[in-house]
Amino acid sequence: MARTRLVTGTLLAAMGLLGTSSSTLADTELGHQGDFGRHRLEDSGTRPGARCHYRTLSVDEHGYRLLLDRISVRPPRMRSIGETGRVGWRAVVQRGTGTPGTWATVARTRVQTARATAARPAEFERMALAIEARERTDELYRVLVRMRWYGSGGAVRGSARHRVDHHRTVKFYGKATQFGPCQGFEWAVAP
Predict the structure, then answer these.
(1) Which of 32, 135, 188, 189 has the fewest CB atoms within 10 Å, measured from its CB?
(2) How would you classify residue 155: left for phi > 0, otherwise alpha for psi between -120 and 50, otherwise beta?
(3) pLDDT over threshold 50, residue 4
(4) What pLDDT does 18 receive?
(5) Is 68 helix (H, G, I), strand (E, B) or coil?
(6) Residue 4 lies inside a defined structural domain of this protein
(7) C-beta separation of 172 from 56 below 8 A
(8) What are phi and psi of 106, to 5 degrees?
(9) The pLDDT of residue 191
């Protein structure tokens, strides 16, 4: 009996830990306006919402220098407000130091639109943005996804804004997934 309680207690504790960490497994909602349908970003440690691609500036016996070259963003899953409707999204890249109030938009994609239904999400494609990063170790880059729902006349009926929290970094020495923004520039001593 004591063993059963121990196992049950351990399972409940593990489930509690999983429940607490689930909020860190997804994107961050930043606000909604007007009428909007069901939507979500696929953004987790195993399926990051964005990929940060780096180019190598130099590699020698002293170390390596990498600069962020482009960011590709996974599209949102969006359903219509009613039975059927037009929806759209765009990715926005911001540069900052990570402290509140320092983020500024440096790139944005075009708005990609498609038809969706209440039962089936729109079929969107991943979009990429070229980035003009600078050789400064304090600069970070994050991605916002802006979603829109359109009315019959083409006017925007509602919108949602989400921040991607997981990025896959693609560098000359491999790939890794990280929580939080991507570094714009990286310098490291050779091993």
Answers:
(1) 189
(2) beta
(3) no
(4) 34
(5) strand
(6) no
(7) yes
(8) -120, -15
(9) 59
Task: Name the amino acid, one letter, at 177.
Answer: T
**Per the structure, how many domains does the chain have?**
1
Whether the predicted model's global pTM rises above the 0.85 cut: no
Query: What residues make up the domain containing 41?
Result: 26-189
Q: What amino acid occupies position 183?
A: Q
Looking at residue 188, its pLDDT comes to: 72
Q: Which of 77, 64, 72, 46 is nearest to 130 (CA)?
A: 72
Determine, yes or no, domain membership for 1: no
- State what percent of residues in the chain have pLDDT above 90: 59
Asked if residue 14 belongs to a domain, the reply is: no
How many other β-carbons are positioned within 10 Å of the β-carbon of residue 149?
Answer: 24
CA dihedral 109, 114, 119, 125 (to 10 degrees): -50
For residue 20, CA distances in Å to 14, 24, 25, 35, 171 come to 10, 8, 10, 30, 31
Q: Collapsing DSSP states into helix, strand and coil, what is residue 9?
A: helix
CA–CA separation, 175 and 178 (whole Å): 10
